[in-house]
Amino acid sequence: MEYTLNHSSADRTAMYLRCYPYDTSQMATHQKKLLRQARRLGLAEPVLYLDNGVRSFGPRPALEQFLQRSADGVYKVLLVTGLFVFSIHDNEARALAEGIRSFGCEIVELPSPTRFPATGVNGADLH
Fold it and tell me: What is the Cα–Cα distance from 42 to 49, expressed in whole angstroms?
């Protein structure tokens, strides 16, 4: 999936990761993938917000800090590996994503390596 962002490289970009249980490597592989995606899209170097060893329910200090800064208009783009970083419950994750978008911050998810486009027999589109 190709993304078309209406932002310049001067716009502030963030990336958010959450992992439970604690990851001693600080999710280095995920950080690298998000950084590559930012560069591919011509975005500014992302600021990392990482809740490491934090469950999706309860306090998430890094996410709370990002939300405050996003509400203040600091960020225009948030890179995530998927909306599941916000919550393991789809409805909660989508609601939080909508809140972030309401601040004027676009959310960009990494393309899933296992998500394939819906196609019919012999590659015919199912739309």
Answer: 20
Residue showing tokens 């911050």: 105
Q: Tokens at residue 75, please? A: 């960020």
C-alpha 67/C-alpha 11 separation (Å) is 17
Before 61, cis peptide (omega within 30)?
no
71 neighbors 64 (Cβ within 8 angstroms): no
Confidence bin at 11 (pLDDT 50/70/90): confident
Query: Using 50, 70 and 90 to split pLDDT, how confident is the model at 6?
Result: low
Which CATH number does 13-110 carry?
3.40.50.1390
**Of 109, 108, 72, 76, nearest to 8 (Cα)?**
76
pTM of the predicted model over 0.85: no
Domain boundaries, given as residue ranges, for the chain: 13-110
Return mean pLDDT, the chain: 87
